[in-house]
Amino acid sequence: MTLLVITPDYASHVLPLATLATAWRDAGSDVVVATGPATAAVVAGFGLDRVDLPLGRGSNAGVMRAGEQPKDEAASLEGFFDATRRGMVPTLSYQARERLTDLMWDPVGRARRTLEVVEQVAPDAILVDHLAFSARLALQTAGIAYGDVVLGHPSALPVAGEVYGCPPAWPGAFTPSSGELDDLRLLCGEVARRFTAQWNAAARELDPAAAETPDAFASHGDTVLYNYPAALAAGDGRVLPPHAFLGSTRREERVDDDVERWLADGEPYAYVSFGSFLSVRDDVLARVAEALRRVGLRAAVATGAGDPAALGEIPATWLVRDVLPQVRLLGGAALAVTHGGNNSVTEAVGQGVPLLVLPFSTDQFAGAAAVERRGIGRVLDPNRAGAAALADAIREVLSLGAAPRGLLDDIAREQALRPGPGIAYDVLTGASATS
């Protein structure tokens, strides 16, 4: 059996998709990952084959730095980072406008290349990152079945009544006016219409008889796999298409001797990371660091693209690097401080770790709202929360009550018994029914 995995050339996407593929690899199947060249080492690290399929103008091998991107992508990133400093609605509005050039880069060319890869690999099963729009366009137009992996919060695949890019839920720390939300929804609606027209035009170029899609953002494969714990989605009122929840896609990481020595100390610690993109907001990381010093809690901090010097005086007991083994460190953390990226949230929750979420963009707001609704952490506005408020929130997370702790324990136990890769394998191979 051969599995083909199709994903954009970003480590934060390749890592969970490759982790899902390990179920096929361990069962003796051949696995080929179709992506761009930047993440070739990541793919090789999983012992998987790679075929070249760039799907966008940018890439990210692990830490996203604007200066390492093509000129137009670098300008887009700088505009995005600036928008995050102006707040939630400016950020979401900026991202909405950028989608017209970012999500369907060379759609016909990329779609045709996708079909060439499918013909070359001749897979028995296909897993596709939901955000690989040009690749999904090709498969859907050609009538090729695939597993549609939604790596973000489930709202990354909008359902009835939702508009892509306008979160269906907001944490309490964010209070945009009704006028701001109306304007954002109108903008996202216009982007969805234009994006859908672009999708349908490309589909007709691929196949003049192709049926029109009413909302390209809401289109999906026959099999939808949400990289998300079912317990976090419970009670949010959203009606989902036929699906399976994977929980999380916790990957195995190489043993880091320095990290193991640091962990051997045995003292409680916080794990802090804003991911590969938003680590550039080292002004917020600096306030988090000050809050942790006030609480007296040691920390493992992944600075990413941020400047470690921005953190101020780093206690001798801390572990600070640009990149850290996130899964390993979350496994023993007392809490995680995160931007709310889906990998960070699901990997923390899947190991029973409560959260302090400081969301900046996209589906991070919906994910943070779920954390708040289920009581497994706190959410603050990263642009407004000072060190004192952050310190208070850290103390509150550390002292969560029995009910939220019990929920976290239940989620961790369930994921340990049935990891995400096994669920994906069962669903795509028909080994068992999962919903």
TrEMBL record:
SUPFAM superfamilies found in the cross-reference section = UDP-Glycosyltransferase/glycogen phosphorylase
Q: Which domain of life is it from?
A: Bacteria
Q: Which Gene3D superfamilies match?
A: Glycogen Phosphorylase B
Q: Name one Pfam family in it.
A: UDPGT
Q: Does the keyword Manganese apply?
A: no
Q: GO MF terms on file?
A: UDP-glycosyltransferase activity
Membrane-crossing residue ranges in chain numbering: none
Going by the UniProt record, its keywords in alphabetical order are:
Transferase
Biological process (GO) annotations held by this record are: antibiotic biosynthetic process
Question: What's the protein called, per UniProt?
Answer: UDP:flavonoid glycosyltransferase YjiC (YdhE family)
